């Protein structure tokens, strides 16, 4: 009797597996797009008050062996921190657009006019080109300063600053309200923000004001974004930020409290993954990217040295391309990473695994 029961159960499982596999399509000329569907799956019995009423999302892919494409058509992505076409934020936007996502940007208020003018005059057209020949378009471009949560938080001197003149509704809460009005919901949230006014000062010479400013702009801003955008995000959505190896390794010259801010960002990623996961059903991760010679990075003052150091000492001896970070971000923000949350993912050619500088003079041996 027990044997019959086991055989019957195995037959049921085998039947369920067969029914969940996508059959090969007739044509092998291109990969079928990734499909997501709802399916009832077995869950342990619990009291009704504790049992989840939601169905588990099962991801099926083409079974013809032609690929596992990322399909984000119909998804809405808000990216905070893009100010030009050189940084990681732009690369992530472009990769998400390649996958079919609709993109809106939150641009730092003092940089907004230059960004919009460059966009309008076609200065970004070459960078906007997608693989199908079309140009990446933005559904909305909002002014945003993630240092301020509400209008009441903005000091009078900032309100009167000429660089903010003509812009309104640029605090985090106001920007979230605009996005909610225009879009209704958001599937993807990208935090590409960092600033440390005293970044070139050693930590021992950093003022309290400079240290807290770095923490506010570079790490708490991610908390603020999830506080305000979380209620707009669809269940199964994802958020991501960008960190740096200085969070857990000493990088002399990366000062002003920025290393502390990145460490806080990585710690917050874990806590936010739990809290946003339980509250909104949203995944939260961060990418620790290698050095890139963007305009923002040049403010550090020694980014070219860091690029050369990484080239000589990383596991993969090559320069990092922004698109490589964009590709990983797109994966983490897609259903393919549906079980990945609370992680710091290194995209740095393997620099973070090395414990020895291969170009060190101490390794030189006389003939």
Automatic annotation (TrEMBL):
<keyword id="KW-0560">Oxidoreductase</keyword>
<comment type="similarity">
    <text>Belongs to the short-chain dehydrogenases/reductases (SDR) family. FabI subfamily.</text>
</comment>
<dbReference type="GO" id="GO:0006633">
    <property type="term" value="P:fatty acid biosynthetic process"/>
</dbReference>
<dbReference type="GO" id="GO:0004318">
    <property type="term" value="F:enoyl-[acyl-carrier-protein] reductase (NADH) activity"/>
</dbReference>
<comment type="pathway">
    <text>Lipid metabolism; fatty acid biosynthesis.</text>
</comment>
<keyword id="KW-0443">Lipid metabolism</keyword>
<keyword id="KW-0275">Fatty acid biosynthesis</keyword>
<dbReference type="InterPro" id="IPR014358">
    <property type="entry name" value="Enoyl-ACP_Rdtase_NADH"/>
</dbReference>
<keyword id="KW-0444">Lipid biosynthesis</keyword>
<keyword id="KW-0276">Fatty acid metabolism</keyword>
<dbReference type="InterPro" id="IPR002347">
    <property type="entry name" value="SDR_fam"/>
</dbReference>
<dbReference type="InterPro" id="IPR036291">
    <property type="entry name" value="NAD(P)-bd_dom_sf"/>
</dbReference>
<protein>
    <submittedName>
        <fullName>Uncharacterized protein</fullName>
    </submittedName>
</protein>
<dbReference type="Pfam" id="PF13561">
    <property type="entry name" value="adh_short_C2"/>
</dbReference>
């Amino acid at each position: 009797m027990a044997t019959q029961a086991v055989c019957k159960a195995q037959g049921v499982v085998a039947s369920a597996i067969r029914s969940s596999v996508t059959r090969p399509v007739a044509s092998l000329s291109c990969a079928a797009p990734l499909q997501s569907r709802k399916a009832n799956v077995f869950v342990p019995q619990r009291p009704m008050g504790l049992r989840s009423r939601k169905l588990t999302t099962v991801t099926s892919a083409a079974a013809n062996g032609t690929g596992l494409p990322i399909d984000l058509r119909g998804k809405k992505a808000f990216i905070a921190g893009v100010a030009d076409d050189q940084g990681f934020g732009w690369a992530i936007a472009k990769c998400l657009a390649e996958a079919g996502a609709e993109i809106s940007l939150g641009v730092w208020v003092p940089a907004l006019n230059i960004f919009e003018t460059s966009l309008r005059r076609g200065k970004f057209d070459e960078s906007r080109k997608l693989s199908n020949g079309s140009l990446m378009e933005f559904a909305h471009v909002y002014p945003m300063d993630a240092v301020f949560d509400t209008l009441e938080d903005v000091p009078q001197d900032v309100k009167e600053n000429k660089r903010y003149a003509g812009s309104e509704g640029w605090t985090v809460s106001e920007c979230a309200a605009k996005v909610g009005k225009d879009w209704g919901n958001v599937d993807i949230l990208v935090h590409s923000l960092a600033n440390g006014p005293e970044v070139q000062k050693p930590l021992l010479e950093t003022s309290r004001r400079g240290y807290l400013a770095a923490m506010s702009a570079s790490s708490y801003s991610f908390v603020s974004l999830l506080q305000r955008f979380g209620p707009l995000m669809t269940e199964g959505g994802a958020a991501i930020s960008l960190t740096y190896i200085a969070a857990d390794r000493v990088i002399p010259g990366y000062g002003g409290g920025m290393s502390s801010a990145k460490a806080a960002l990585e710690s917050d990623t874990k806590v936010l993954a739990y809290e946003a996961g339980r509250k909104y059903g949203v995944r939260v991760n961060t990418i620790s990217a290698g050095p890139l010679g963007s305009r923002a990075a040049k403010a550090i003052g020694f980014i070219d040295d860091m690029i050369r150091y990484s080239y000589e000492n990383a596991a993969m001896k090559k320069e990092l391309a922004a698109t490589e970070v964009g590709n990983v971000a797109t994966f983490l923000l897609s259903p393919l990473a549906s079980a990945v949350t609370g992680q710091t993912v290194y995209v740095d050619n393997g620099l973070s695994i090395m414990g020895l500088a291969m170009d060190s003079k101490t390794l030189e041996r006389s003939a």
